[in-house]
Design brief:
Blueprint lengths: L2 H12 L9 H21 L2 H17 L8 H22 L3 H17 L5 H16 L7 H24 L6 H23 L8 H10 L3 H6 L7 H16 L10 H26 L7 H6 L11 H21 L4 H6 L19 H10 L6 H20 L9 H9 L4 H29 L3 H17 L5 H19 L3 H25 L8 H24 L3 H29 L10 H22 L11 H22 L7 H11 L7 H21 L3 H24 L9
Helix pairs in contact: 1-19, 2-3, 2-7, 2-20, 3-4, 3-6, 3-7, 3-20, 3-21, 4-6, 4-7, 5-6, 5-17, 6-18, 8-9, 8-11, 8-12, 11-14, 11-25, 12-14, 17-18, 17-22, 18-22, 19-21, 19-22, 20-21, 23-24, 23-25, 23-26, 25-28, 26-27, 27-28
Protein name: FUSC family protein
Length: 724
């Protein structure tokens, strides 16, 4: 993608409206926390003090809207404490540039490295950098600085207290994650009715698993309906895929195919009903026609053999899902039985035991090619530089420029540029509207405080619908606070706009100077996914070669690793398609073909998994040899792809040929799955195998193809297709 088109995509993304469910009650409660702090500060102190005190309440409240599985009150307290600490530490160094700038650089670097723990930690840490920058406006008194830090921390306490006293959708995020996982499987079942080779995106299941990890304290209060359905959804995915597949499930046409479509549609209805029940906390309501369809024990059943076995397994899993969704299932009883806590739920470390986790996560990112490390370096450079540039300018509040930079910067190109556009657009509109109101109303601290609270409520309400729209009311909130503190509106407009523009420009420039492009890393991400898929396939095959509980546990670990590798590839691929970088190693067409091939390989493995024999069943010795060959060839091919060499499947072909001559093959599903795996690997080799000359020509052709598509888009002769 060329720079011009990439910037066009950035502008569209920065100004787009995301379709998401609004949460007005949460916004109202959080804005009430801001109002309590502002009102108390106005009553007990002064308007300037109230403006400073509102910082902690607003930022701590915004932190509770981030996607996290910890209790919101814990996030509010943590954000308030971090803001207070950064404010006080910033005050200690604010007197001289020689002390402030190094501290600011170190603090910004630490905030950037917080992304190693996830987006929530990174965003909350960035707000502490902004708090430190605002410190330069505080009075030069240690006692007053402590008061300001205490009031900022009190803002987090106020938000936490409101969350405790007025809970809104307690466990709502966890319910949504589980419901989304069930709905994703329902959608997959419907797509399989028309496309038996449809792929399944495991991201909702991965999110649900992440949400299922709780601390011991959370486990004691978790609703019963959140205990079991995730595991059932995991087990249903290969079952519905096997039922729809014409090779190992229902026949391609005829009454058997019609029956499979009926079962898949009924399964989708049941899963959707369970998802609605879990999301809303209401009784499960399944259409009667769907329950009538889910009967495969009658004499007139048209499905036979493996297809009938798969249908019976699907009906059993659906019955369990309904029972658990209603909160009276076996999973709920198991959750209250005696035994070690780790056996009943996925353990999440408490806040006091997070230090080793943090150290390990940060250590993993301390490498030159890490996007997180590069993001931290950019923050550490831009924050002091922005302050140095803005301070001599003939405007007040020069800290707005580095704050704008810090708040828009993200570890990837597209989000950084899109947020810079959104922040500038939102600031322009918000400042214009708010300053117009300030000018019309005249000085009135109490009225400005009320308008600030209303603006905060609207900002919280729109926080998940688009950054530009939320930022519009955030800018208005700041203007009203400044008006409450006695600052003239004439200063606010040019300062806020010019310094926001400067901060956004610095953030964009920093990414150009020190980027973290995903495009060059695509071959490595693809190789990691291939190797993980090979280990997952080998684990499934060993479940046939030696059916034991140990191999089932190995299979589960390999499956999770495969999903993580696939998610890493998908994230890198999506980012690469938005980057203005020439393809290196893989063109967009080759990446698409390779992705399709690995999807096919993963699907073949999933079909084999759906028919795994029970523990203690008769083993299939041929599967072990094929597993060894598959694991060895995929691992070697992953190394070859990283070094831009063509993969080879010699051992896989030899093991499959030897399998053909073996007598007494008792699992046609397993044998057919092995053939599909070999076919998918051949397709992968076709996608990525080229001579060095062909690679150079392919990159040139890719660039020509993108240019032609852009030209066609410009003259309206046809749609343009994005490159990688």
């Amino acid at each position: 993608m060329r720079w011009l088109r990439a910037l066009g995509e950035v502008v569209r993304s920065g100004l787009s409206i995301e379709e998401t469910r609004l949460e007005p009650l949460l916004a109202l409660r959080t804005a009430a926390g801001v109002g309590l702090v502002i009102g108390a500060a106005l009553w007990l102190a002064s308007p300037p003090f109230a403006a400073s005190a509102a910082l902690g309440a607003f930022s701590a409240g915004a932190a509770t809207f981030q996607r996290t599985w910890r209790p919101r009150k814990v996030i509010a307290l943590g954000a308030g404490a971090g803001l207070a600490l950064s404010t006080f530490v910033g005050y200690l160094a604010a007197g001289r540039l020689v002390t402030l700038l190094p501290l600011l650089a170190v603090w910004a670097f630490a905030a950037g490295m917080a992304w190693a723990l996830g987006s929530t930690a990174g965003i909350v840490a960035a707000t502490t950098v902004g708090s430190m920058l605002v410190t330069v406006t505080l009075p030069t008194s240690l006692g007053v600085a402590l008061e300001h830090a205490g009031v900022i921390a009190l803002g987090g306490v106020a938000q936490a207290a409101l969350i405790l006293l007025f809970p809104v959708r307690r466990w709502g995020a966890h319910r949504d994650a589980l419901a989304d996982a069930l709905a994703a499987v329902a959608d997959y079942a419907r797509r399989l009715q028309h496309d038996p080779a449809a792929t399944f995106d495991p991201e909702p299941l991965m999110t649900a698993r992440d949400a299922a990890a709780v601390t011991p304290a959370q486990a004691r209060t978790r609703p019963p309906a959140l205990h079991g359905p995730r595991g059932l959804a995991e087990r249903m995915v290969p079952v519905v895929a096997a039922l729809a597949d014409p090779d190992v499930g229902a026949p391609a046409a005829g009454p058997g195919r019609d029956r499979a479509r009926e079962l898949l549609n009924a399964a989708a209805d049941v899963l959707d009903a369970a998802a609605r029940s879990i999301r809303r906390g209401t009784p499960t309501e399944v259409p009667p026609r769907s329950t009538d369809v889910l009967r495969v024990d009658g004499q007139g059943e048209v499905l036979e053999g493996p297809a009938r076995h798969t249908a019976e397994e699907l009906v059993r899993l659906l019955a369990e899902a309904l029972e658990v969704a209603e909160g009276v299932g076996a999973y709920d009883r198991a959750s209250t039985s005696s035994g070690p806590a780790s056996a009943r739920f996925l353990v999440r470390p408490t806040m006091f035991r997070l230090l080793p986790v943090v150290v390990r996560a940060v250590r993993r990112e301390l490498r030159r090619d890490s996007p997180v490390l590069r993001h931290a370096v950019r923050l550490a450079a831009v924050a002091p530089l922005g302050y140095l540039i803005a301070s001599p300018l003939p405007v007040g509040h020069g800290y707005w420029a580095p704050i704008a930079s810090v708040m828009v910067m993200r570890p990837d190109f597209h989000r950084t540029y899109a947020r810079a556009v959104g922040r500038l657009a939102g600031t322009l509109v918000g400042v214009a509207l708010a300053t117009g109101m300030v000018r019309a109303i005249g000085p009135d601290a109490h009225l400005f405080g009320a308008l600030a609270v209303v603006s905060a409520a609207l900002s919280y309400t729109l926080l998940r619908t688009g950054y530009a729209y939320s930022q519009c009311f955030t800018a208005a909130y700041v203007v009203f606070l400044l008006g409450m503190g006695g600052h003239a509106w004439e200063q606010t407009v040019p300062e806020r706009v010019v310094l926001t523009l400067l901060g956004g420009a610095l953030a964009m420039l920093a990414y150009v100077v020190f980027p973290a492009w995903e495009t060059p890393r695509l071959p490595g991400r693809l190789a990691d996914w291939l190797a993980a898929n090979g280990r997952y396939a080998a684990a499934v095959l060993r479940g046939y070669a030696e059916p034991t509980q140990k191999h089932r546990a190995d299979l589960r670990r390999a499956l999770l690793a495969s999903r993580e590798a696939r998610a890493a590839w998908q994230e890198a691929y999506d980012r690469a398609r938005q980057e203005p970088v020439r393809p290196r190693g893989l063109t967009s067409r080759e990446a698409e073909d390779a992705q399709e091939a690995l999807w096919g390989f993963d699907r073949a493995t999933m079909l084999m998994e759906s028919h795994l024999p029970a523990a203690g069943s008769r083993p299939t010795p041929e599967a072990e040899r094929f597993a060894e060959a598959l694991e060895a060839d995929t691992a070697q091919a992953a190394d070859d792809m990283r070094e831009h060499r063509n993969p080879d499947w010699g051992r896989v072909a030899e093991a499959l040929h030897a399998w053909e001559g073996a007598a007494g093959d008792r699992s046609p599903v397993l044998r057919r799955g092995a053939e599909l795996q070999k076919k998918a690997l051949d397709n992968l080799a076709t996608a990525v195998s080229r001579t060095p000359l062909e690679r150079d020509v392919g990159s040139a052709r890719e660039e020509q193809r993108v240019r032609a598509a852009l030209a066609a888009e410009g003259d309206g002769s046809g749609p343009a297709r994005g490159g990688g």
